[in-house]
């Protein structure tokens, strides 16, 4: 089925489940749509270097490929999804750009320092940082969230954003952009994703505060708060019957595709958003949110 036909399906995913996180994109049916066939780059990021965490699949893959089509070389970081990361690298290189892949746990500050160093060794500059990697775990009650899960979710989702931005900051110059992935759950909550939702709320505040701190240096900081998007995180989180229904109750009647979200990152990374900082975009299928 052509990608654009998949993208227009209201909710075309069959029941499926993956037993562990991070999920694997190559095991999903249908595969997520990472870029629309008609998307045409216009050189918005020519000469720039971008680092995208969670860049092996889902939104991260879509952002990496869109950035490459706009002229950027890209580094992607992933945990252990080597096959998916290799596919993203191939897709970026097919756009005529260079791609560095990095395997590691960004919840560790030393790993983030190593990643920043490798990007600089390979490319000699860094213009756009996309803090995107995340994990989530369903729990029916606060009583079911163990201390280990709580710490792990915060390490992956928000500690890593602190660590990596700190490690990259000495290399960012005037005109650089930091983009952080938060979620619609930061604004409306989710009773079964309590710790995940809390980290996403923290990311919103991180964006607003860091934007104010870095404004005098000419570095912009913004966020993107996707709604229900068809990524490997979904079958790796929810039971089969929930996956089959995923996104069907949104105003637009379908789950989003990564291709629906990535242009928001292109906008925030480029000079088109030169007068925007401390803000969050909401590609969420039409759900109103209050900031």
Automatic annotation (TrEMBL):
<dbReference type="GO" id="GO:0016614">
    <property type="term" value="F:oxidoreductase activity, acting on CH-OH group of donors"/>
</dbReference>
<feature type="compositionally biased region" description="Basic and acidic residues">
    <location>
        <begin position="17"/>
        <end position="30"/>
    </location>
</feature>
<dbReference type="Pfam" id="PF13561">
    <property type="entry name" value="adh_short_C2"/>
</dbReference>
<feature type="region of interest" description="Disordered">
    <location>
        <begin position="1"/>
        <end position="30"/>
    </location>
</feature>
<dbReference type="InterPro" id="IPR002347">
    <property type="entry name" value="SDR_fam"/>
</dbReference>
<dbReference type="InterPro" id="IPR020904">
    <property type="entry name" value="Sc_DH/Rdtase_CS"/>
</dbReference>
<dbReference type="InterPro" id="IPR036291">
    <property type="entry name" value="NAD(P)-bd_dom_sf"/>
</dbReference>
<feature type="domain" description="Ketoreductase">
    <location>
        <begin position="48"/>
        <end position="233"/>
    </location>
</feature>
<feature type="compositionally biased region" description="Basic and acidic residues">
    <location>
        <begin position="1"/>
        <end position="10"/>
    </location>
</feature>
<keyword id="KW-0560">Oxidoreductase</keyword>
<dbReference type="InterPro" id="IPR057326">
    <property type="entry name" value="KR_dom"/>
</dbReference>
<comment type="similarity">
    <text>Belongs to the short-chain dehydrogenases/reductases (SDR) family.</text>
</comment>
<protein>
    <submittedName>
        <fullName>Oxidoreductase, short chain dehydrogenase</fullName>
    </submittedName>
</protein>
